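Continuing from the previous page...

OK, I double-checked the sequence for Aldo/keto reductase against my notes and this is the correct one:
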Amino acid sequence: MQSVKVGRSGLRVSGLTLGTMGWGDSVDEIFARETLHDFRDAGGTTIDTAYGYGDGAAETILGDLVPAIDRDQVVIVGKAGISRTTGSRVVDTSRGALLTQLDASLRRLRTDHLDLWLVHTWSGEVPLEETVSALEHAVRTGRARYVGVSNYSGWQLVAADAALREARIPLVANEIEYSLVERSADSEVVPAAAHTGAGLLAWAPLGGGVLTGKYRRGVPADSRAATGQHSGWAARRLGGAANPIVDAVATAAEGLGVSPAQVALAWARDRPGISSLIVGARNATQLRTILAAATTALPPEIAQALDDVSRR
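Thanks. Re-ran it with the corrected sequence; updated structure tokens here:
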């Protein structure tokens, strides 16, 4: 698996990042351990988690596994600002909330620092200068090696970058949704990241499973679109404009003798500005398919055809 620099920073991540959003929910500790082991064997170094994933279960499970791996050989990406402890989604990007969540994350993860720490989402309820001050403090105190943001629009990214520059601390990353069926970032976020020097970490590069082709004949009962708290999000990516894109991915996969998932991931991996793809697996078959994408190469003409059919 390739090692890639995040934007213009010195931070290096693996081309695929292991996502832990389902850990403690659809993924138990036994499969999480197997997944991490196989990911590391494939050359993966980067693991993405968040304070709010599984109400803390994801970080706790990862923390239980950290002693079994070489901490210096992995890059842990954490996020703060969203919680579900009240049973509903709560956004709080105040300095106090962010630093409190950071300390809780470090305890759960059994580590003294995060390699990359992100504000999980934008909030207009808190002054940007206050939110950014938490990132600055985390770096100054050694609790984060690098900092960035998540789900920021282009202008929000530029504003946050400018605020951090005053403290002489670089904003190195923006974690965003990006795939063949979700390319809204192309118009503003990608150019903004190029301008600031931030790298992009792409979540949901398979469009919630839509690009695997598993929904072409209906919605499987155990799929993301049918179950779980994210079912509505996944279902909105089915049908309509997605159909010709999914068909094109399937056609390309058949011609190349690989899976549709490999085609979709390889396309996203090679897009300008993308540093790493955040991927998760709920079973061994999904994991094997995802890891195979690390070495899948798309001929330029196929990449261009997919670009054309998916362009907004």
